[in-house]
Design brief:
Blueprint lengths: L19 E3 L6 E3 L4 E2 L1 E5 L3 H4 L2 H14 L3 E7 L26 H16 L3 E7 L17 H14 L6 E6 L7 H17 L5 E4 L4 E2 L1 H4 L8 E4 L9 H8 L7 E5 L19 H12 L5 E4 L2 H4 L16 H4 L3 H14 L7 E2 L16 E4 L5 E6 L5 E2 L10 E6 L6 E3 L7 E2 L8 E7 L15
Parallel strand pairs: 4-5, 4-12, 5-6, 6-7, 7-8, 10-11
Antiparallel strand pairs: 1-2, 2-3, 9-10, 13-14, 14-15, 15-20, 16-19, 17-18, 17-20
Helix pairs in contact: 2-3, 4-5, 7-8, 8-11
């Protein structure tokens, strides 16, 4: 369509995708066949609005190869998404009316949705960016009412009812500030759920908020997404911990952490940009605090910056050049590590740290299963790790250092003591402690650079 072919990519083996559901303990996600699902998301808010189908295929292939499992994108996009045409010259609505969708635009949405399924990627799909119901600082305009939000939700739910790989994400960097805003969101959720009952729903708030802060009493809210901040050392784990204390329990995920190569705190001088170490720290802090996954973001990719037009937050190069920034590859390292762990049987276990774990210094975080036969510790600043000595007394343990940057695994040799000194104090580390009897189940195979 529009001169572009739509064919299967021979580089991938295509398997039918299954819908996601909440696990029995309400903390994590799994497929309907019971396979654990780790949400390793990438942020491509402007993908549908700015990229052609061939560019979308290139992007999806890169993300699939790196180990991402889900892509977050928007139908009615942030950057003048109602009035600036997409790559094929189409705008989404006639006369800014949600009841009058433009079939030409939505044929492209159809192709993107279908392509993601073919390539084995789930979609975290936002019906609209938040400025279309709560303008604030955005382009807007505000076009939604409770009535047309309901019909738009029904339109989307019906159109994409046959696709198993969609998680619907309402909001879009906004919180409801009035009763009208809340009614709009509630009605849009009801419209989607009426037509597509199998899909999970969530909400993407603005920085410093969890979805459950505003919709915790809504029965449609399945996944508790939050947005932290684009700030170095923000201590994102605080939000994961806060979300896990909520009732009813829900999977908690940082849906917008700090982006790679974005200026710290979005400063207008564009200096002190977040780098791969900031990306790793946020991801492991969250996951070792009990999150059900984590979303990566890159400054150039969220906006699909073409290298010349309207750079936001000091974008420095095109999104295609940004695809291989180190933080993205290191999310793949994270995925490979967690795929080899019984991580959905592991819970935060901060009491296993024996030394004082000061909050004013980068916090060490711990996951462990109930009998402590699997223990994973993250040291974000190259500090030695001191564990409870009782952990080494009950059963024989083996230990490994895992480099979260490269994926390299190093044996801890000799007699194990309660203090583990990192191989290199200049960087972050993961320490994995296993019962020797569990060693046969550790099948990790790092992919190292040649």
């Amino acid at each position: 369509m529009d001169g572009e072919s739509h064919h299967l990519d021979p580089a991938f083996t295509y398997l039918p995708m299954k819908p996601l559901r909440i696990t029995a303990n309400r903390r994590y996600l799994e497929t309907t066949s019971g396979e654990p699902f780790l949400w390793v998301g990438d942020t491509a808010w402007e993908l549908i609005h700015r990229a052609s189908l061939d560019e979308t295929r290139l992007y999806f292939r890169n993300r699939k190869e790196k180990g991402f499992s889900l892509i977050q994108t928007v139908i009615l996009a942030e950057l003048d998404g109602l009035h600036h045409p997409n790559a094929h010259g189409e705008i989404p609505l006639h006369d800014d009316d949600p009841a009058r969708p433009n079939e030409g635009y939505f044929r492209h949405v159809d192709q993107v949705v279908a392509l993601a399924e073919e390539m084995g990627l789930y979609l975290g799909l936002l019906p609209t960016w938040g400025d279309k119901f709560n303008k604030k600082w955005g382009d807007g305009p505000e076009i939604f009412t409770p009535e047309n939000a309901r019909s738009f939700g029904e339109f989307l739910g019906k159109r994409y009812a046959g696709f198993p790989h969609i998680v619907w994400i309402l909001g879009g960097d906004r919180i409801p500030e009035t009763s009208l805003h809340r009614k709009i969101i509630e009605q849009m959720a009801a419209g989607i759920r009426d037509q597509q009952g199998h899909s999970l729903l969530s909400y993407h708030p603005n920085g410093g908020n969890l979805a459950s802060d505003h919709f915790g009493d809504s029965d449609w809210l399945d996944v508790d997404l939050f947005q932290s901040r684009h700030q170095k050392g923000f201590r994102e784990y605080r939000f994961t911990r806060k979300g896990r204390k909520r009732n009813p329990p829900r999977p908690v995920i940082d849906g917008e952490p700090g982006y790679e190569n974005i200026p710290n705190m979005l400063n207008k001088w564009h200096f002190q940009r977040l780098d791969a170490s900031d990306i790793r720290r946020a991801a492991y802090w969250n996951l070792l605090s009990g999150a059900a996954g984590h979303t990566y973001g890159c400054n150039e990719i969220w906006q699909m910056y073409d290298g010349k037009t309207d750079p936001r937050f000091g974008a420095q190069f095109s999104w295609k050049e940004a695809l291989d920034l180190p933080g993205a590859s290191q999310m793949g390292v994270l995925r490979r590590i967690f795929d080899c762990l019984p991580w959905q049987q592991m819970e935060p276990a901060p009491s296993l740290i024996a030394s004082i774990n000061w909050k004013v210094t980068p916090l060490k975080t711990v996951l462990a299963n109930p009998d402590k036969s699997w223990v994973l510790v993250y040291s974000p600043q190259g500090k030695s790790i001191k564990i409870r000595s009782s952990l080494l007394k009950k059963r024989e343990k083996v230990a490994f250092w895992l480099n979260p940057e490269t994926g390299e695994q190093t044996d801890v040799r000799g007699k194990l003591t309660a203090v583990f000194r990192v191989p290199d104090p200049r960087r972050d580390w993961l320490l994995l402690l296993l019962d020797r009897d569990s060693l046969k189940n550790w099948v990790y195979a790092p992919i190292l650079e040649s």
